[in-house]
Amino acid sequence: MKMQAQDFLAMKAVKPIAMLTAYTCPVARGLEKAGIPVILVGDTVGMVEMGFESTRDVTIEHMEYHIGAVRRGAPDTHIIGDLPYNTDRNPEIALVNARRLIAAGADSVKLEGPKVDVIEHLVSQGIPVVGHTGLTPQTAKNFAKVGRTESDAKRIKEESVAIQKAGAFMLVLEHIPYELANVITATLAVPTIGIGAGPNCDGQVLVINDALGLGDYWPPFSKQYAHVSQSILEVAKLFSKEVESMEFPNNIIQFSSSGKR
Ligand code: KIV
After folding, report:
1. Is the pLDDT of residue 32 over 90?
2. Residues 53, 104 within the same domain
3. Judgement on whether residues 191 and 255 belong to the same structural domain of the protein
4. What is the number of domains present in the chain?
5. Domain shared by 197 and 257, yes or no
6. Which residues does a 6 A CB cutoff place in the pocket of ligand 1?
7. What is the residue with the minimal CA distance to atom 8 of ligand 1?
8. Candidate from 20, 205, 222 with most ligand 1 atoms within 8 A of CB, to mutate
9. Same domain, yes or no, for 189 and 125?
10. pLDDT of res. 11
11. In the predicted model, what is the mean pLDDT of residues 145-167?
């Protein structure tokens, strides 16, 4: 059964929440089959799938396209859709765009930073919101860890409290010192989901391409559970060799007469 905001709230301090990003139908299908309770269609899609230098190039139309694909692959999984850069610049514009993501298949939306008025407005209109603080890539100058100075840590903690107070049901903490994540996790009633924020958050999220080893750059806090880039290379080389030697398609089973695989 698809989980909703209250189910994730009930998991806090009871069961760690495993979140992965997905951008395509077959990957989403695999995550749902594996029992992943929540999929984030993040604007990281711009960097890891579309080849952009920054998430700032992602548009609302890109997000609608990817959310639709993920929903078709994972009909029974909670999907969070990221509001891309500048689409949440004020409460009214954010509402229009959040509704587009919901119509595309998202169950909730995520937005970066302490945009308290925007979160309040979306929640008041019945849209569940996930917050995101610490490193916020849409506006960050680089991907260095944040919150290392006392004043920065204080700011991030205050932002976290404000985001919860505004009505967010979950908070992503990205690339902050572990001790700061621990303090925020202990302070908030809503679950925290860490990415580069240490082991004591209420859950963890990874970018699926990083977890699959499908890329040429992995953040230091990520883990490669597979080496899909290497498999692509091997498959492409083998295919090319077999076509040139005419071994393929002579050695494969034919399609059935129905045309189905
Ligand atoms: O866009 C994204 O995938 C994210 C995660 C890195 C948390 O925001």
Report:
1. yes
2. yes
3. no
4. 2
5. no
6. 21, 40, 42-44, 82, 132, 172, 174, 195, 205, 207
7. 42
8. 205
9. yes
10. 98
11. 98
**What does the block give as tokens for 17?**
């929440």
Do 259 and 195 lie in one domain? The reply is: no
Whether 174 and 206 share a structural domain: yes
Are residues 60 and 94 part of one domain?
A: yes
CA dist 237 and 216 (Å) reads 18
Q: Which of 32, 112, 159, 174 is catalytic?
A: 174
Gap from CA of 154 to ligand 1 centroid (Å): 23
CA 235 to centroid of ligand 1, rounded, Å: 29
Atom 2 in ligand 1: residue holding the nearest Cα? 42
Mean of the per-residue pLDDT values for the chain?
96
Cα atoms in the 13 Å half-sphere on the side-chain side of 166: 28
Task: Report the separation in Å between the CA atom of 44 and the middle of ligand 1, taken as the mean of its atom positions.
Answer: 6
Q: What is the CATH number of the domain that holds 141?
A: 3.20.20.60
For 170-217, the pLDDT digits (tens) are: 999 999 999 999 999 999 999 999 999 999 999 999 999 999 999 877
Ligand 1 atom at minimum distance from 112 CA: 8
pTM of the model: 0.95
Q: Tell me which residue of 74, 72, 63 sits closest to 30, measured CA to CA.
A: 74
Six-digit token pair at 147? Answer: 């919150």
Neighbours of 155 (CB within 10 A): 15
Structural tokens at position 136 = 């916020």
Say if residue 256's pLDDT is above 80. no
Can you read off the two tokens belonging to residue 120?
Answer: 């309040």
- Per-residue pLDDT, 216: 77
Told to judge if 174 belongs to the known catalytic residues of this protein, a careful annotator would answer: yes
- Which pLDDT tens digit goes with each residue over 91-106? 999 999 999 999 999 9
- Closest Cα to residue 193, out of 178, 204, 207, 182? 204
Examine the domain organization and report whether 238 and 222 are in the same domain.
no
